[in-house]
Design brief:
It contains 10 helices and 15 strands. By secondary structure, the chain is of the alpha+beta class. The strands form 5 sheets. The chain has a 6-stranded mixed sheet with strand order 6-9-10-13-15-14, with helices on both faces. A 3-stranded antiparallel sheet has the order 1-3-2. The model has no long low-confidence stretch (mean pLDDT 87).
């Protein structure tokens, strides 16, 4: 397992992976002493909802069907006369009303109410979430579900909700019903390699794109240097899709980000680098050789999180410079920033 990633650094990884860099100092997690994921997300929601309330919750027109004094909007004549409402100066009407009961506010409230029942949440955060969710009196209390997220509509006027909706999605993914306790337990995605592999790759890509303005950072599908009579379109060959491709004048670097429990594989009594990772990266570089200019002499970098071994190795493989590097995600954040900026 990669060395324990502090919760504060998980927050920074998420901010970069989601391309929400402006939220990096949003919840002041560096000084909060937060040690549980549920508490991290609770702190983000508490900070975010306080800001929303100061700014004013989003309001939108919601359709209502209600019995009201007088007439408003479209009258339901059948119901109105069946119940003899005109005698009392009332009518059954369908009309639009400006309300805070919008899909975005429903998701935020549902997320807070879900977190309130997580077993290991701190008492202080539980009390704050309960108090805040009660303040959203005009917002319907609905269970957090996929259907609730489908109704969300984000645009230029409510883009300040985007980060909180991203956090709410992760809460929905991580909160697992606990029938014995009657609430939820929180899935620790930090310990799940597949989840962290996606996060690690997206983090490195967006970090370089945002923090290294001198680089042209992208992803691309490389063409196979191959031919086949039976498969002339080469449609059965797998895509060669780079995690990160970096270009600067006179230099092209292909970066492959891997998230493993161990930096090395064990072959009998001998430690070696992961063979599949090396073969994959070398295949990328060899297939780029027919490209014109600097791409034909592209370099490769394999990046792993630090486990028990810190590594910085450089090889020349079939004419291509290839570097294997570990990144210590347990460092203080300024150290991680410096290491990543120096990667290329």
């Amino acid at each position: 397992m990669p060395s324990a990633v502090p919760i504060r650094n998980v927050y920074y990884l998420l901010c970069y992976a989601w391309n929400r860099l402006e939220q990096k100092d949003f919840a002041d997690v560096a000084t909060a002493g937060v040690t549980e994921l549920a508490d991290l997300f609770a702190r983000v929601l508490i900070t975010g909802v306080h800001r929303l309330c100061r700014r004013g919750l989003e309001r939108g027109y919601q359709e209502r069907d209600a019995e009201i004094p007088g007439i408003r909007g479209q009258v339901d004549l059948r119901t109105t006369y069946t119940r003899m409402l005109p005698r009392h100066g009332r009518a059954q009407c369908r009309f639009d009303e400006l309300s805070t009961d919008t899909p975005q506010n429903r998701v935020i409230k549902a997320s807070m109410q879900t977190l309130e029942t997580v077993e290991r949440l701190s008492r202080d955060h539980r009390v704050q979430l309960l108090r805040l969710s009660r303040q959203l009196t005009g917002v319907a209390a609905l269970p957090l579900s996929r259907d609730l997220f489908r109704s969300v509509g984000l645009h230029a006027n409510n883009r300040h909700y985007r980060f909180l909706i991203d956090v709410a999605r992760l809460i929905h993914q991580c909160a697992l019903p606990d029938e014995r306790a009657g609430g939820y337990r929180f899935r620790d995605f930090i310990r799940e390699r597949r989840e962290m592999a996606r996060l690690f790759e997206a983090f490195i890509f967006n970090f370089l794109k945002l923090e290294r303005a001198d680089l042209d950072v992208g992803r691309e599908v490389l063409a196979w240097d191959a031919a086949s009579d039976e498969d002339p379109e080469l449609s059965l060959l797998p895509d060669m899709r780079t995690d990160v491709t970096v270009r600067q004048p006179g230099r092209t670097v292909v970066i492959d980000a891997k998230y493993y429990e161990q930096t090395f594989q064990q072959y009998y009594d001998r430690k070696t680098l992961h063979s599949a990772n090396l073969y994959q990266l070398v295949a990328y570089l060899r297939n780029m050789e027919r490209c014109p200019g600097q791409d034909g002499a592209a370099e490769g970098v394999l990046v792993y999180p630090v486990t028990s071994d810190s590594v910085d190795l450089t090889y020349t493989v079939q004419g291509h410079k290839l570097r294997v590097r570990t990144l210590d995600l347990a460092k203080e954040w300024p150290g991680i920033e410096a290491d990543l900026k120096a990667l290329v």
